[in-house]
Amino acid sequence: MLNSQYTDDRIEAGCDEAGRGALAGPLFAAAVILPKNYTHPLLTDSKQLTRTRRESLRTEVEREALAYAVSRIGVETIDEINILRASFLGMEQAVQKLIPVPELLLIDGNRFHTTLEIPYHCLVKGDARFLSIAAASVLAKTYRDEWMEQLHADFPLYAWNENKGYPTPSHHEAIALYGITPHHRRSFRLERQLKILF
């Protein structure tokens, strides 16, 4: 079972993102404040969960959290500032929506940069160690998956309902056949990659 808290005396917000490695679609980030001593036997890193379990846990997190927020960073911003900075920005924007204001941020990963004057700890594989980060990973993942499924309705040739914009062989093949869309990340240099792949 994951840890409920990093400290005993501060309001903690777990932060995570989804979509960092995708070729298309926005990045989503979430921040979650859970009650003190909250526990859940099934809550963990969203990548380790089935879709059905993620959806169930999203409902649980949204019901039980003291506060939660989700932000979306579009492809234009990703292309402008790069994907790493976009992930920092997304988590920062999610935190800014939280009431109460957290006193400590638990960040999934090994790096973070923010303009917020809130202390933070970077935790490698934090979404498999702390419940609040796992909760944020579930929200970011489920919100982003929904978004990509909506985009799929307008661009069905790319199968975003299945690959969610990630670099699967079928996604690469669709780009090679039909070109890129306004929802593809141009800074990822897809055309150059495809010349190497095909």
Description:
The protein is of the alpha/beta class and 198 residues long. The longest helix is centred in the C-terminal third of the chain and has 24 residues, at 131-154. Helix 2 (75-81) packs across helix 3 (83-96). The chain has helices spanning 51-64, 75-81, 83-96, 131-154, 160-163, 169-178, 190-197; strands at 12-18, 27-33, 67-73, 104-108, 120-123. The protein has one domain (12-197): Nucleotidyltransferase, domain 5, CATH 3.30.420. The protein has a five-stranded mixed β-sheet, with helices on both faces. Helix content is 41%, strand content 15%.
Quick structural gist:
The protein has 198 residues and is α/β, with parallel strands linked by helices. It is built from seven helices and five strands; from the N terminus they run ββαβααββαααα.
Set down the secondary structure blueprint.
Elements: E1 12-18, E2 27-33, H1 51-64, E3 67-73, H2 75-81, H3 83-96, E4 104-108, E5 120-123, H4 131-154, H5 160-163, H6 169-178, H7 190-197
Parallel strand pairs: 1-4, 4-5
Antiparallel strand pairs: 1-2, 2-3
